[in-house]
Design goal:
Elements lengths: L20 H11 L4 H32 L5 H49 L3 H6 L2 H14 L1 H28 L1 H8 L2 H36 L2 H9 L3 H24 L2 H27 L7 H42 L21 E8 L11 E8 L4 E5 L6 H6 L9 E6 L2 E2 L5 H7 E5 L9 H6 L7 H10 L3 H6 L17 H15 L3 E5 L7 H15 L3 E5 L11 E6 L2 E6 L1 H7 L2 H15 L30
Parallel strand pairs: 3-8, 3-9, 6-7, 7-8
Antiparallel strand pairs: 1-2, 1-4, 4-5, 9-10
Helix pairs in contact: 2-3, 2-6, 2-12, 3-5, 3-6, 5-8, 5-12, 6-7, 6-12, 8-10, 8-11, 8-12, 11-12, 16-18, 18-19, 20-21
């Protein structure tokens, strides 16, 4: 087997050094590489449109200098038709160019969205425990959405306007090079001003997107079902509204600053360029009065027409430069996510198991959440074997590393020392599909989508028949309840399953896992948050699920693990005791003390909270039991 890297994900600093613009621009251009053929066609259309458009002033010159003075009606009609034809062709080329460029831009947007989503799917759990959901959503929705103008029209506008400017300048030089020099004297100043404005807007845009992400996170957290219940029962609805208003107010300020940054300077450029025709007329008149070379009326009108034709693409080109610099801030935020290191990866030549027996081994397992900074490992020297079809129970006080141990089997985390094997193969050498089919997890926190009961169950097996879904629900002791609902299996479960009680959601999760039919089952405190009556019903479903499978149970209530083939007591990341229920009781050690604690809790009616005390970035965490506030049953 290959050696395994011992790496751990750490989030990049919020204000890390900015990448150099040329490198970032090259990376942006690579996004368009798959669409080179379409972009080449756009370039041809742009070039054709630019050449056709500059022909019109030359036709006008001939009309004024030749056709009208010489009374040549036929030539006049032909030149007039030529001017109409140039307008029609320019419009047709523009429509086709817009269609193709918009299609390419939207495909690039699709590639970015899909790439970010795929990257996030591969990130370790530590990333999601350290990142607010609203921040992730904002990157995909706001940041990529904010780049739409850049990738759909800005690139084409840049090429189109640049081509138009070059073609117009060449035509102006052909008419009169002296007037052209006068027209272009201030161009370097305009370019410098636009770059300054672009840098200002880029800095403001970075702040604006961070503020939008913060506001999205506030909305996601406070307007979820849990957030609404918590806010109302704590009497914090008004303060939450005030907090949101403050976030929105900061966004208003940034939006205004972004819109007004450099606005006066860009307006000055527009004023100067609009005044250029008057300057050209003045220069031509002065040259004529001072005895310089005469400029024909047709040449002068054609030149001014070209100059005014230069005004629109030149101003647009400068504005595009500003917009591109602004968009660099958005691209940078997206590239930050695309560049996040992915620690849990599939090997280059993964092992695929056609049939999984289900033997699980922990061999000298060590795990640290922060290999460089954590003084004490969360798990250290764990050696346990669970035979195929056998059962292991892991118990211990809060913070002993129970859930962490279970998460190493499905590779929600990777060991930092030793290895975990499935049928003798290191789980890090297995392909993801084999591991997903082999290991099923039922945790304390059940997640259900805002969809029907049937759709939630089919998430485990998309091609499952109605009969298979019903059989799984029966095995999980939930079919009768579903059948009693007005819409049966078509009933919407509500946001995060809030139309169902805790026990009903747990049995739906068990039914989903039964449908998946994994040979290895991880039960992570699956009944610890339930009352005794509900626990009994869920335990029956778990017993049906566990039959014939390798089962690893993380238990808080020891009544659920008495029949396990092997019980391991964890303490501070080490195995303190191991054996059967009877053997451990006879030893009268830590396990016996835990059993006595459970007995006292049953008598007094108090139960210690199930969640482990985990540092930031670890699975689980505190749970807000909003279910105690309002009934959750349908």
């Amino acid at each position: 087997m290959r050696p395994h890297d011992q790496s751990d994900w750490t989030p990049p600093p919020r204000d890390s050094g900015q990448p150099k613009e040329p490198a970032q621009l090259r990376r942006i251009l690579r996004l368009f590489r798959p669409y080179r053929a379409r972009l080449a066609l756009v370039g041809l259309l742009v070039g054709a449109a630019s050449l056709v458009s500059v022909a019109s002033p030359f036709l006008l010159k001939e009309i004024l200098d030749t056709a009208i003075p010489e009374g040549r009606t036929g030539l006049l009609s032909l030149l007039a038709l030529g001017m109409i034809a140039t307008a029609v062709l320019t419009s047709v080329f523009g429509v086709l160019q817009t269609l193709i460029s918009t299609t390419v831009g939207q495909r690039v947007m699709h590639d970015l969205r899909t790439g970010v989503y795929e990257q996030l799917q591969r990130m370790p759990l530590a990333f999601f425990t350290r990142t607010r959901t609203g921040e992730v959503q904002s990157r995909i929705a706001n940041d990529i959405g904010g780049m739409q103008a850049t990738v759909t029209s800005t690139a084409t506008s840049l090429v189109s306007n640049l081509t138009a400017v070059v073609a117009t300048v060449v035509a102006m030089l052909a008419l009169d090079w002296r007037l052209t020099v006068v027209s272009l004297l201030l161009l370097p100043v305009f370019v410098w001003i636009s770059r300054r404005v672009g840098r200002e807007r880029k800095a403001i845009t970075t702040q604006r997107q961070k503020q939008m992400a913060a506001m999205a996170a506030t909305v996601t957290e406070s307007l979820s079902v849990s957030g609404i219940l918590l806010g109302r029962t704590m009497g914090r609805a008004d303060s939450l509204t005030t907090s949101f208003a403050e976030e929105s107010e900061r966004l208003v300020d940034l939006e205004v600053r972004s819109s007004m940054a450099g606005r006066w300077r860009m307006s000055t450029i527009g004023i100067v360029m609009a005044a250029m025709p008057a300057l050209i007329y003045w220069a031509a008149g002065i040259a004529l009065q001072s005895g310089g070379p005469a400029i024909s009326l047709g040449t002068l009108v054609a030149f001014v027409s070209l100059q005014q034709g230069l005004f629109r693409p030149a101003v647009s080109l400068l504005s595009t430069g500003v917009q591109m610099q602004t968009s660099l801030a958005l691209f940078q935020r997206i590239f930050e996510y695309l560049d996040l290191p992915v620690d849990i990866t599939e090997p280059a030549e993964p092992v695929r198991l056609a049939k999984v027996r289900g033997e699980v081994r922990f061999e000298k397992v060590e795990f640290r959440y922060d290999p460089e900074g954590q003084a004490r490992p969360t798990l250290d020297g764990i050696d346990v074997t669970v035979p195929a079809g056998g059962s292991l129970a892991v118990v211990g006080p809060t913070g002993s590393g129970k859930s962490t141990l279970s998460y190493l089997v499905p590779r929600l985390y990777d060991v930092t020392g030793g290895r975990v094997t499935l049928d003798g193969v290191d789980v890090r050498d297995l392909d993801f599909d084999t591991l997903a089919r082999a290991v099923g997890v039922v945790s304390q926190e059940t997640y259900l989508f805002h969809a029907s009961v049937a759709d939630n169950l089919r998430f485990a097996k998309p091609d499952a028949t109605d009969e298979e879904i019903e059989a799984a629900a029966r095995a999980a002791q939930i079919h009768d309840h579903i059948a009693s609902l007005p819409e049966g299996y078509d009933t919407l479960v509500g946001e995060r399953g809030y139309r169902f009680s805790g026990g009903e959601k747990q049995r739906l999760a068990i039914a989903r896992t039964i449908l998946r039919d994994p040979p290895v089952l991880i039960l992570d405190e699956a009944t610890s948050a339930l009352d005794t009556r509900t626990e009994h019903a869920v335990q029956q479903a778990i017993d049906a699920l566990s039959a014939g499978r390798t089962t690893i149970t993380i238990a808080h209530r020891l009544s659920t693990v008495r029949d396990a083939d092997q019980i391991v007591v964890l303490e501070a990341g080490h195995i303190a005791e191991r054996g059967t229920h009877e053997e451990l009781l006879a030893r009268d050690g830590r396990y016996a003390a835990l059993v006595r604690r459970d007995a006292r809790a049953a008598v007094t009616g108090t139960v210690e909270g199930p969640a482990e005390g985990r540092p930031e970035g670890r699975p689980g965490g505190e749970q807000t039991n909003v279910g105690a506030v309002v009934p959750q049953n349908v």
